[in-house]
Amino acid sequence: MCRNIKPLFNFDPPATDDEIHDAALQFVRKVSGTTKPSKRNEVAFEHAVSSIAACARELLDSLETSQPPRDREEVAAKARARTAVRFA
């Protein structure tokens, strides 16, 4: 799907509303095929982003796991290491 959408579940601290909004925005951009909607489509675009963000928040709040929460810094460090190897 979209490489910019990152997993948001089971992190300590939990995903913020801004992170969820950003993921919803990336999803709507991908589905609509545009990064900035025309004035005519702006309301529909923003409505879709807010609806998807609300659904994503509901999903994240209802998911359960027996795994311990992942550390954001540790996951980011692993991603940076993979990037360094990939583009070295």
From TrEMBL:
It comes from the Bacteria. InterPro entries: DUF2277 (IPR018735). This is DUF2277 domain-containing protein. It comes from Rhizobium johnstonii (strain DSM 114642 / LMG 32736 / 3841). The lineage of its organism: Bacteria, Pseudomonadati, Pseudomonadota, Alphaproteobacteria, Hyphomicrobiales.
